[in-house]
């Protein structure tokens, strides 16, 4: 490497990104925007891929598609919980601690932390995979079809913890590209395998639909292999630079291996709970919805399965595309806040919290309202024309704003080492969810779990925001004007998109998937253009994203 070793002053500066061979520094807001851009792109494209496959998948499963979706959701909810337990919050903890040690020029300690974390994540992966595989009959709650699904998913639990840990390591260096690209490749490999096996089993062999779902869930393992290969490539690419940083670090800290493990576990434990928050709520739904529905209503098993699929799989698949916006910004915020916390810079923490909330609102609110506006053609396109399914998707889109907000601010709490408090607030949210679950499901059916989830996370988010404001201050005054603009322009976007959908379906066939494509594209393009034009014209986009939007303004000839 021709670059000279970095001194301590550079290392602790706000703009230092150690794996970059450049002396150019950037502000924390610029880094947040860049990191968010990478993570958002990776997450959004992955989610879109994970939703698009549904269109042919549903067609090939035919009349069994709703049962297949319900089975898929049942298996995946249990798998998600075990996966989070296997990952054990280690990636986010590693990202936070690596950023901490990098800030004080102890790169060697951060790299040792990563290597010890590999052993720990490997062990937790093996243990959780074995429990998931051999415990499948108990976890299935008497549904024999769930057992082969859990068996197929156990293989992914072996690989994904190590993959996630390596992503966390790169994020600790504020390098989001490896995570984003590996996430996309993981999803691409997974979707290709799913579609190929579903087509072969259902259309060529005319086989059993449970076997086809089992192969579709086994695709998680295939995807994990693809994502891991990308990260190995990036690690080998930066290996010499990592070695150089370790050799030229201060090396004043001699931390025993036992203490490193304690540090990882202490930091990781709260991340397990907070990272699995949405999954925990989904598991509450899975293990309570059927019993409540059977107790209150005299519906057939097939109908209850269909209603469960409507909110737990169908709408969830699409809504998580929007929630991934919040997740992307949350991942970016953790190492940066950890750096500011290490320096004891409360002013910087205040600025980063405010910037994170503004960026979240700028992207999340119009995306959620836009999805609500096109709920009917979107549901028809991915599944089939269904009034109940459309209503559930629309309400889920609104609730996604709350889920996204929780994702961002819970990550902020972890970034500033308020882990225990974040867990305590989440526990309150779980109690709220449990208290509301029965009455809301009893009165509102499939809409009940969505609303109880929204209210539960709303309470948690309010508690977290109140604490952050008391402890670090949130720039509400600085936020008021841009937030007003975002809300106004998002509402205008919703009105335009909703009007296009309603006008189109006055004349067009609501059952047609091809018509749904046209209506979706037209409504999304017109609504999106309205938001883009309004934010550029009023310079709101400049305030949020800086001078980088000037080129778009010139291209669209907006003055």
TrEMBL record:
The keyword Transmembrane applies. The chain crosses the membrane at residues 37-58, 78-96, 117-136, 148-170, 191-212, 218-236, 264-284, 318-337, 357-375, 395-416, 423-440, 446-465, 486-508, 514-534. InterPro entries: PG_synth_SpoVB, Poly_Biosynth_Transport, Polysacc_synth. It comes from Pediococcus inopinatus. Residues 1-21 have a biased composition (Polar residues). Keywords: Cell membrane, Membrane, Transmembrane, Transmembrane helix. PANTHER family: LIPID II FLIPPASE MURJ (PTHR30250:SF21), PST FAMILY PREDICTED COLANIC ACID TRANSPORTER (PTHR30250). It comes from the Bacteria. The keyword Repressor does not apply. It is a multi-pass membrane protein. It is found in: Cell membrane. This is Polysaccharide biosynthesis protein. Residues 1-29 are annotated as: Disordered.
């Amino acid at each position: 490497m021709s670059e000279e070793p970095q001194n301590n002053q550079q290392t602790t500066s706000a703009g230092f990104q150690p794996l970059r061979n450049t002396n150019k520094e950037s502000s924390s807001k610029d880094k947040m925007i860049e990191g968010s851009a990478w993570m958002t792109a990776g997450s959004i494209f992955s989610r879109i891929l994970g939703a698009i496959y549904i269109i042919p998948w549903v067609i090939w499963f035919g009349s069994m598609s709703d049962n297949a979706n319900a089975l898929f959701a049942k298996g995946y909810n249990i798998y998600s919980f075990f996966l989070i337990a296997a990952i054990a919050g280690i990636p986010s903890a590693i990202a936070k601690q690596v950023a901490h040690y990098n800030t004080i020029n102890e790169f060697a300690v951060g790299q040792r932390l990563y290597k010890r974390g590999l052993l720990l994540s490997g062990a937790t992966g093996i243990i959780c995979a074995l429990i998931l595989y051999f415990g499948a009959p108990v976890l299935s709650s008497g549904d024999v079809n769930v057992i082969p699904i859990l068996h197929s998913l156990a293989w992914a639990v072996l690989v994904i913890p190590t993959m996630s840990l390596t992503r966390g390591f790169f994020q600790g260096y504020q390098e989001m590209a490896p995570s984003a690209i590996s996430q996309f490749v993981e999803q691409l490999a997974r979707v290709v395998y799913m579609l190929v096996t579903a087509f072969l089993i259902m259309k060529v062999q005319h086989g059993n639909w449970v076997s086809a779902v089992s192969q579709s869930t086994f695709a998680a393992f295939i995807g994990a292999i693809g994502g891991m290969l990308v990260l190995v490539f990036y690690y080998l690419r930066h290996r010499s630079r990592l070695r150089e940083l370790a050799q030229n670090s201060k090396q004043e800290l001699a931390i025993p291996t036992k203490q490193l493990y304690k540090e990882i576990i202490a930091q990781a434990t709260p991340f397990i709970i907070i990272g699995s928050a949405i999954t925990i709520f989904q598991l509450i739904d899975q293990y309570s919805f059927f019993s409540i529905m059977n107790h209150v209503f005299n519906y057939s098993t097939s109908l209850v399965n269909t209603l469960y699929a409507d909110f737990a799989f169908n709408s969830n698949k699409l809504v998580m595309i929007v929630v991934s916006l919040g997740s992307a910004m949350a991942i970016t915020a953790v190492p940066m806040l950890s750096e500011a916390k290490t320096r004891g810079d409360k002013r910087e923490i205040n600025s980063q919290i405010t910037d994170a909330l503004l960026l979240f609102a700028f992207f999340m609110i119009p995306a959620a309202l836009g999805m609500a506006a096109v709920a009917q053609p979107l549901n028809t396109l991915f599944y089939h024309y269904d009034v109940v399914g459309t209503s559930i998707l629309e309400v889920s889109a609104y609730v996604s704003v709350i889920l996204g907000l929780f994702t961002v601010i819970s990550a902020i709490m972890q970034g500033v080492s308020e882990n225990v408090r974040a867990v305590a607030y989440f526990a309150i949210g779980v109690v709220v969810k449990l208290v509301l679950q029965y009455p809301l499901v009893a009165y509102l059916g499939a809409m009940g779990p969505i609303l109880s989830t929204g209210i539960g996370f709303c309470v948690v988010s309010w508690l977290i925001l109140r604490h952050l404001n008391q402890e670090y201050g949130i720039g509400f005054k600085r936020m008021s004007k841009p937030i007003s603009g975002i809300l106004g322009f998002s509402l205008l976007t919703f009105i335009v998109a909703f009007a296009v959908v309603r006008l189109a379906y006055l004349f067009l066939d609501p059952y047609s998937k091809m018509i749904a494509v046209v209506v979706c594209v037209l409504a999304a393009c017109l609504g999106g253009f309205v938001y883009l034009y309004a934010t550029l014209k009023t310079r709101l986009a400049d305030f949020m994203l800086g001078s980088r939007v000037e080129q778009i303004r010139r291209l669209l000839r907006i003055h």
